[in-house]
Amino acid sequence: MQSGRGGRAAMAAFDDLDVLDGLYEAAVLPELWPEAIARCSAQVGGIGAVMFMARAGQTHGFSSPNLKAKFDEWVASGAMAYNPRIERAMARPDLPVVRDQDLFTLEEIETLPYFQTVRSYGVGWSVALKQPLPDDAFTILSLERPGTEAAFGDDAVRWLLGMKPHVARAAVASTRLALERLAATLNTFTALGIPAATVAPGGRMIDANPGFGRFLGTVFLDRRVRLGLAERGADALLGEALARLHRDLWSKAVGSIPVRAGEGHGPLVVHVVPMRRSAHDVFAGAGALLVVSELGATQTLDAGVIQTLFDLTPAEARVARMLAEGAAIGEIAAALAVSDNTVRGHLKVVFRKSGVHRQSELVALLRPAVSPPAP
């Protein structure tokens, strides 16, 4: 191992069995992935880690807990749209583990705007493991170190190569579980007769239930860049909402989009529901759930279904259900034997988790019979 921070004995915070335990726990509990990749970074003298997932031209990811604020800021800046590390790494299939110095000249590392940007976030050197996944997807586990310190050495490459089969098994398992979870979500909406689809963070459609499928080609356009709406004004709102899926930008988005009646359908409301449940949706490639409310439908979602779909507590789900059925805050408080402030507190959480901003939007999402909210 290199001297200084690169010295393995001096910096290992976990032994390899701890790392393996973390990876296999994360395989079935994806919310544990950020801590699992942090352990990997500690083993090679890094200060944190990032895991990227790429599928169908879209790249997204998550970071270890200590880098989360900086990573979220980096994503919100749009910097992830062009990542030369990933581009060059994928051009070297002969190297399953790569370092910056394997892909770039020292002059490039010093002068390219990309490296100047990452150094401004407190990192600079990386060593990364590439792993293909099913359905032409792949993941990259990138362990990070400040640019002011020594670059990763050969020992870090050897250690990551040793971890490759374990990272692969864990990532494949998480991907399959996440895709099954997305399919189950769409099946739930299918059973309720509600059109729904899942889209990637960039807006490309991942999957849709049959109810949503009947709108493809007329109301919705499955474009190569992103899913669109045939109605120009509504499409502009949808494009803006999809562009603001990152949590730091979503508060300014219109999450419920009215669509005028057309041939073969009445007025519709398209609800964009952000999916932000740790690593779950990163492995599935999901950025949002689109739910279509058709005017004239009368079914309100069951409280248990609401709880599952939006990751609510039982109390939050009951409040959401009662509001959708037309109850006022005071009536809900009296029925549940709690204060009005408690109900309002639950509603704030429901708004955040469901991606809406107003009571009218929540009612429209949970009960398709209401009129579309004004944009």
The number of domains: 2
Q: CATH-wise, what's the superfamily of the largest domain?
A: Winged helix-like DNA-binding domain superfamily/Winged helix DNA-binding domain
Oligomerization status of the protein chains: single chain
What is the general shape?
globular
Number of helices: 17
Protein name: Helix-turn-helix transcriptional regulator
InterPro entries: Sig_transdc_resp-reg_C-effctor, Tscrpt_reg_LuxR_C, WH-like_DNA-bd_sf
Keywords: DNA-binding, Transcription, Transcription regulation
GO molecular function: DNA binding
Offer a quick outline of the entry.
With 375 residues, this protein is an alpha+beta fold. It has helices at 8-11, 16-28, 33-43, 68-76, 84-90, 100-103, 106-111, 113-120, 154-191, 210-213, 232-243, 280-284, 303-310, 314-324, 329-336, 340-354, 359-366, and strands at 48-55, 58-63, 97-99, 125-133, 137-145, 196-199, 205-208, 220-222, 227-229, 256-259, 268-274, 288-294. The protein is 46% helix and 18% strand.
